[in-house]
Design a protein that fits this description.
The radius of gyration is 19 Å and the shape is elongated. It has 192 residues and is mainly α. The protein is built from ten helices and no strands.
Length: 192
């Protein structure tokens, strides 16, 4: 219904979000899902760090002889990103709602005028993207494509307010890391 920037459907969704029953709660839940996804990955990073420290100290060698100091247990990070399928669905929906330079929806995602609790889905998406950048791995590249696809649609038109927010959040070192990232396991990426 929304693919290709269907303006009639986008306007119907915007009307329902802004004036319909449950629209505000739906936006709040989307923001929660983005935050929960980011936190899940953060917890996975902590788990990875603890395992790595144990491996470096040799504590874990008896329980798991395969785990050595040089082996990187990225399985936790990959599992964390792949388990956040709801986040990918939220990003896909946001992408489609803004597709075609839908300025009204782009603005609405940042600030909901008259709402009891205004949420900023642009910032929530950016925070998730930053967490993804920290964990860059071939098996989660497609998730980054979803994030960048949504973020791109937030600024098309152009939407200078969203461009400013995104410009402040995206750092050149992060972009350089992505551009310099070599995908060595193309088979893993192809299965995404």
């Amino acid at each position: 219904l929304l693919t290709g920037g269907n303006q009639t459907m986008q306007e119907a969704f915007l009307e329902e979000f802004s004036h319909g029953y449950g629209g505000e709660a739906c936006l709040e839940r989307m923001q929660e899902l983005l935050f929960e996804g980011k936190l899940e990955v953060k917890e996975s990073q902590k788990h990875y760090k603890r395992e790595r420290e144990m491996a470096l100290r040799g504590v874990n060698k008896r329980r798991n002889p395969v785990l050595q100091a040089k082996s990187v247990p990225t399985v936790h990070l990959i599992r964390a990103f792949k388990s956040t399928i709801c986040v990918r669905q939220v990003l896909c929906l946001l992408h489609m709602l803004c597709e075609g330079g839908n300025r009204r929806f782009q603005d609405y995602l940042s600030v909901q005028a008259g709402a009891q609790n205004s949420v900023d889905l642009v910032q929530a998406s950016l925070m998730y993207m930053q967490k993804w950048q920290e964990c860059l791995h071939p098996e989660i590249m497609s998730i980054g494509c979803d994030v960048f696809g949504a973020i791109t649609e937030f600024v098309v038109g152009p939407n200078s307010a969203n461009q400013g927010s995104i410009g402040d959040a995206i750092k050149l070192d992060g972009i350089n890391k992505i551009l310099g990232f070599e995908v060595t396991d193309r088979a893993a990426m192809a299965t995404e």
